[in-house]
């Protein structure tokens, strides 16, 4: 039996697939909302839609293969027509906080070069300002404690991400994730820039000024927000 949130995720997944046209190279994001999108996209591919997907995580790659979606990788591609991805928080300017599943680096590489980026989410992801969700920051394993100490000087507590069995979570790029409590992030660009300047930081989960369209699912249906830039 599907819960309300899953039903809303399915609605936005179906709507997003309508934007995928024959011949497109499509960035495939990561996360539970995207898992539904992959299912729908697989159905369209089986009905004849001719596309190539670029997965942003091993999990997405595995699921896409199971659904019969043809894949390529970044070494074969110079242009991505469209990327579809999820988010952990979306603010009023359509800036995002991402990385709850630990896929932020590959997502940002793909999402940032796509000609169009569509984000799909249920309405619980809409927030007035980013930061209630801990900000994921991917760091190299070597010296992570030093990097964490450096990050904590920005007035946050960085927690090393662990799995349910208490082992350290390792990303698809063999790095660690520090989940950082900032409470509120009023200036995401400034914070992102400060973090990126720190040696040891690979990438942050702040996706600023990248989104073209957000499709939100709620019990009343779906609504689309278009970024006017
Ligand atoms: O690393 C994970 C990604 O950024 C996901 O897109 C994000 O966490 C949203 O995932 P979900 O659709 O499961 O809420």
Automatic annotation (TrEMBL):
Keywords, A to Z? Isomerase
Q: Which SUPFAM superfamilies match?
A: D-ribose-5-phosphate isomerase (RpiA), lid domain, NagB/RpiA/CoA transferase-like
Catalytic activity of the protein: aldehydo-D-ribose 5-phosphate = D-ribulose 5-phosphate
Query: Which Enzyme Commission number(s) are on file for it?
Result: 5.3.1.6
User: What positions constitute the catalytic site?
Assistant: 107
- To which pathway does this protein belong? Carbohydrate degradation; pentose phosphate pathway; D-ribose 5-phosphate from D-ribulose 5-phosphate (non-oxidative stage): step 1/1
- Gene Ontology biological-process entries: pentose-phosphate shunt, non-oxidative branch
**What Gene Ontology molecular function terms does this protein carry?**
ribose-5-phosphate isomerase activity
InterPro entries to which the protein is assigned, alphabetical: NagB/RpiA_transferase-like (IPR037171), Ribose-5P_isomerase (IPR050262), Ribose5P_isomerase_typA_subgr (IPR020672), Ribose5P_isomerase_type_A (IPR004788)
> Does the keyword field hold Cell division?
no
CDD domains xrefs: RPI_A
Q: Which top-level enzyme class is recorded in the Swiss-Prot or TrEMBL entry?
A: isomerase
List where this protein forms a coiled coil: none
Positions with a binding annotation for substrate: 30-33, 85-88, 98-101, 125
Q: How does it assemble?
A: Homodimer.
Instruction: Give the protein's biological function.
Output: Catalyzes the reversible conversion of ribose-5-phosphate to ribulose 5-phosphate.
Instruction: Please give the family membership noted in the entry.
Output: Belongs to the ribose 5-phosphate isomerase family.
Q: What name has this protein been given in UniProt?
A: Ribose-5-phosphate isomerase A
Q: What is the lineage of its organism?
A: Bacteria, Bacillati, Bacillota, Bacilli, Bacillales
